Amino acid sequence: MLNRNAIERTVKRIAESLPEDVANLRGDMERNARSAISALLDKLDLVTREEFDAQCALLASTRKKLDRLEKLLTDPD
User: Fold this and answer.
1) Of 11, 39, 67, 73, which is most buried by a Cβ count within 10 Å?
2) DSSP string, 50-76
3) Residue 72 vs residues 2, 54, 62, 66: alpha-carbon distances, Å
4) Rounded distance between C-alpha atoms, residue 76 and residue 53, angstroms
5) Contact 48, 1 (CB under 8 A)
6) DSSP labels, 4-15
7) Are 66 and 58 in contact (CB under 8 A)?
8) Of 63, 75, 76, 6, residue with least CA distance to 40
């Protein structure tokens, strides 16, 4: 799941950038922007930092094992 705080910060920045004469629309804009950003990011099928780090560690471990096996096959001594 994505960091909802980051989405909230983005929505707040967008809302704060609105001109004062449309400030009364800020609530609607915030709800719509939050929904649109969340939907867009969900479609991107992103992974969390923890999932990414776990996969990197697994890949590094697999790479070490593969290197050892390759060495055994090419240098049987």
Assistant:
1) 11
2) HHHHHHHHHHHHHHHHHHHHHHHHH--
3) 43, 27, 15, 10
4) 34
5) yes
6) HHHHHHHHHHHH
7) no
8) 6
